[in-house]
Amino acid sequence: MKPLLLVDGYNVIGAWDVPKDEGLSIEEARERLVHLVADYAGYSGQEVIVVFDGHYTDRPTRSRVMMHGVEVIFTKHAESADNYIEAACAHVPSWRPVRVATSDAVIQTITLGRGATRMSSREFLMELSQVRISGKKHMQDEKISRGDIFSRLPPEQRAIFDKMRRGEE
Which secondary-structure segment (H or E) carries 65? Predict the structure, then answer.
C-alpha cells in the first residue's frame, strides 16, 4: 500500500503566492493546486487526498471526487478540513506511513500524536516544486517516451530488434 499524504487544501492555497500574484479566483486556485498535486503524486508514488473546508457552506454531506487521479474531499457543513484530516489519521493502520501538509499548529500536533508526519504548507509547496523538477529531469535523462515501448528497452535488446528488423539475423 502506498504512503498517504493528506493536504489541507485551503491552508496550502493561503501559503501559496501564485493565486495572489496571478489574481486567480478560489476555484482556479483549487484547480491549479489539484493539478500540481496530481503531478506530484505521479512522480512521488504516494496516494494523495486534498481536503477543502465546507465548514461555512450549506453542503449537507461530504463530497468526494477524483480529479486527475487525486482524491479531492469537500467537507460538509460544520466539518472543517482539520476535523476530516484528524479522523482520517486515526483510521489509517499504524503500519502505513501518513504525512499531513498544513500550517495549522493544532492539527499538526494532533496528527503527530496519531502517528503522522507533519509538514508546513510552505514546505509542501517547496517539495511539490522540487519533486516536479526532479521527475521531469529523470524522464528526460531516461529518454522515456510514454507512447514508445521500444525506447524503454535496454540498449542490447534494442540492438537485437534492430538487426531482426533489418533482416540481419
Answer: strand 63-67
